[in-house]
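Morning!

As promised:
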Amino acid sequence: MSNSSETTTVKLASGDGFTIILDKQVAEQSSTIKNMLEVSRGGSSAFTEALTNEIKFPEIKGKVLEKICQYLMYKHRYADSVDRVPEFGFDLEMSLELLMAADYLDC
Amino acid sequence: MDFNDRARSGRSNQRAGGTSANRIRGPHSALTDYLNEIGVSDHFRNRRRNEQQVEQGVQANNQEATQATSSTTLTEAATTAQADTADAALAADLQEEEQGEVHAESSTAPMRTRSRRAAAAASSVIAVSAVAKKGGKKKAKKGKHSDGDSDFCGSDSNEDEINQRGGLNRSSARKGGRMKECEICGKRFLLRGEQTPDRFLCAMCRRSVDKTFKEQAEVAKRARTTTAPKAAKRRRTKKTEGGLLEYDPGLPTLQDLCVRAIAKHLDQVDSFGDISTQSLHKLCRIICKMRLLDEQTLRLFLGPEKTSVTLYDCTKITDSGMQRLIEQCPNVTSLDLEYCGRMSSQNLLDMARNLTQLKYVRLDGAFVVSDKAWAMFFRTMGERLQSFKIKYTGFGPGAMRALVTHCTALHELQVSECIDFDDSCLAMLAAPITDHEEVQQELERAIKLLSVRSKKGKMAAGGYDDADGYMLAEDAARSVASCDIPSWQPLSKLERLNLSRPYKPMSNQTAMRVVETLGSQLCVLDFAGFKDIEDDFLLQALDKNCGRLQELHLSECNSISSDAFAEFFARQRHKRATSAGHAADGKRSNGLTRVGLDKCYMLTDLVIQELVLYSGATLRWLNLNSVDDNLTMHGLLALAGKIYRPPPEQDGHRGGPELVDETSGCVLLEEIDLSWVHCASDTVLDMVLSKCTKLAQIKTYGCSDVTAFAPTRPGLVYIGRECDTL
């Protein structure tokens, strides 16, 4: 268990059974995920998520979670970019669900 | 000037290890070379020249001349020749300081790296005379020195200067110093000063090393400044309506993108369709949080099927937006608007007229709405209004009179932080006692009578609900015969009363009258910030009348003593015990569920103990913020059911408190605020948590003894704990 905190990837599971394996550094751009994966939290013990490196989001659908991971990658790629940044596109239909998921994940 | 030139050339051609100078230079002695080699130089003189030039701005030139000839010390000269100006005295002090500085500097002369070029170039007649003056001082102090020194100074032969230089050199020589070999060029030099430098370098090498350092620093600095604009370039600034510049920090967040996309394609989104009310509510909250709710986005939250409209931020919703809200949601029963600073009096009246189902109203920050408009609103709403909550608005006596008279079905009333709400408004909740008030309220009742009659006569009910109508209604009311006017009635359905944090003082007497009138029906009472209510309010009015009370908020009521609080809770407990058998008293509350006693600084342990004894079994929410002056850990342990009492006095001294009783504690407690209660510590919380199994939130701002080791369990949150924030 202890060595798992040193792994560099994290497994994100959606409510409808999809799992996405993402680089930890990329995933931690979401402060909610970052807090979940924090091993030492001001004295209190870490969440199970931090030990197993697996996070379940029962309220987020696979399609939305995929889009969120895409956004995290996009942000990771272009955060320090000086050149013109391409627009991040998504379907308008999913924008509502995406908004609520993004609000939850704080990204 | 030739001195400077020569000195410079001398330095640059220092003969080190037999390397001879190629440049032509004037005659100079072996001593000059020696002095140059060991690092004694003329830099301090140039430096002083510069200082003198600055100083010269303060001193008059003619005074300077007299000083130069004088052989008295500088301070004497200053006091005699310049005593008339305050500036001059200051200048004298400055000079003295500078001379001290010269001494100090000369001792570290070999290590100095200052550029002398500028100083050498800057020289004038006045500066020279000023130097001479200083030399005079030295002369007076030190007398004559050896001839050898004059050789160093060459043709710039000012006797005073020679002496001074010699003196300085000597003093520095007296201080000692070590002969060292330069790490770079291998030349011997005199190292002075107490501290050992990081490297042993002669003056020349030190300077060149420092120069390269400086260059490096500059390159680094340039690199920094060149990268900074790059970052800044990326940050586009966008201008907001208020003319304030907002920085766009890099990439937009996903939430931002989503809301923007939704807002942008709002014309395509006719409605959110099958989205649940809960989700819609959440979406509204997110949009409000981002301050994006405006005329465009507003329409997504409106519709004829809506029975409840909650908007958390109406800052951008103008008159027309409000009108649209009224038009598109005719069936709304509950209206909750925050930050509705743009809402006009007319909007409010339109709401009352057109939203016929409206029962629950909560408006936050409707500054523009006037007292009269509120009065008209209540006249129109009448008995439809069941819950009315306002904050920060112009709610005054006129509005209150209308509310009390017309809205008799009201069961919840909150008027918080309204500037115009004063003691007379509070008094209207009780039967009027002054003649003036009686007359005013009769007038209001006459208006009510008229509107009822006009309704019966199929006249327009809203005939008087605009600004002019207010006056017309009053005129009409005066014509009604006084015998027809019904007598005063209290708000008989009112159960929840919140008049917290008034701006104007509320008297104890009035508060007591109100509680005597309404107390028996009240479940919730919030008199937070009523700083003038006293013990008898609690012990006479509240104790006798408020049997049904479940929530009590008396924050900042500092005129009530701790003893009165303890007595009140004790009496309530006894009353409950005695009334337990009586079936008739079925409405009596079993205990308080929410208690706010924050900022009642003086509360003692006994108060908490009595509170727990009375409502320990029912308490869910407790605020003890800043109750710190007299509270000890034994008081807080009452929450865990442990009642400590000081033992009876024995032989003139008392021992520590003893555990006298143990109850089940606050088993239902869910939230507690212990901020700034310094006796709250890890151990206390450990015991409290062992009994309060439902506790989910503890606020511990400023509790230094609640540390990272405080007890935790799933579902429990600490807010404001120092180790989390610092």
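The beta strands of chain A are 9-14, 19-23, 54-57.

Hope this helps with the figure draft.
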